Amino acid sequence: MRALEVSALFDDLSGVALVERERPSPQPGEVLVRVRAASLNYPDLLMTQGKYQFKPELPFVSGLEMAGEIVEAGPDSGFAVGDRVMGGAKTGAFADYVALPAKSLRAVPEGLDFGQAAAMGAAYHTAYVALVELGGLEAGQSVLVHGASGGVGLAACDLAKALGARVIAATHREDKIEPLERIVQPEAVILNTGRFREQVAKLTDGRLCDLVYDPVGGDVFDESTRCVTFGGKLLVIGFVSGRIPEIAVNIPLMKGFSVVGARAGEYARRFPDRAQRIAAEVDRLASAGAITPHIDRTLPLEDWRKAFEAMQRGEIIGKVVLEP
């Protein structure tokens, strides 16, 4: 089978290549899936550079999540040959076939195609854990979403709107304002460069935001501490800006807000029952048409470099899907 293999760690993707590998054989507790679509996530890019917290042993097959059809399944797996499934692990999705633990997969929700299913998992799970489980999101609240054009940011906008929140989408690029207005249809789209607190204050009649969703870090985090209302929460998702910010604890003390880390994968590992409930609720919302993953582009697996380079350049709005 073909697989996108990472054999060395370099910033320019020179350690990545599409190669021929033996088709994997499922181990006890695993099923074999014919991959029909796999979505690119920012950690996929970071892992090719050795910059992600999880550092798999080289060589490894890239790809966090996918959707496809079961081709081999044991009698106790809960699946049958031909079942449409979605999910994944930390590696292996960018290939013709992948062997995965049956417990890491679930049925594709009614009404979703393989591309949408592949694009939904990690981004919407992250958004739900952060906004609902840890943020306590309620209808009518104001939510400021940074990195709104990225996979996890766009998912957060989509989910927050579906749950009745007022969404302010934030981006650092002027050329993404119009697409975000069209795709997300939020209360507003703002530039989160420099001092953006006054824009947020004006849009919320001075109340500021109940929740700030921040996968960016750096200067965006620093200014976001001025955008959270008393009793609100600043949700830390990641640091795509490259700088991990610091905060003097007197700031949340005096302003009366909480800084909450939202590491969705670890949350699922610690609370597997809650993770199943979250997945079921996300699937229900998707089947009902309340949320819809936005796919920026779909490319054949052999064009993997175009996908990774587009992510490096920050061109993508939503997700890129690779089809083997």
TrEMBL record:
Organism superkingdom: Bacteria
Keywords, comma-separated and alphabetical: Oxidoreductase
Molecular function per GO: oxidoreductase activity
Pfam families: ADH_N (PF08240), ADH_zinc_N (PF00107)
Domain Enoyl reductase (ER) span(s) in chain numbering: 11-322
E.C. no: 1.-.-.-
Keyword Oxidoreductase listed: yes
EC primary class: oxidoreductase
Name of the protein in its database record: NADPH:quinone oxidoreductase family protein
Organism, as annotated: Qipengyuania profundimaris
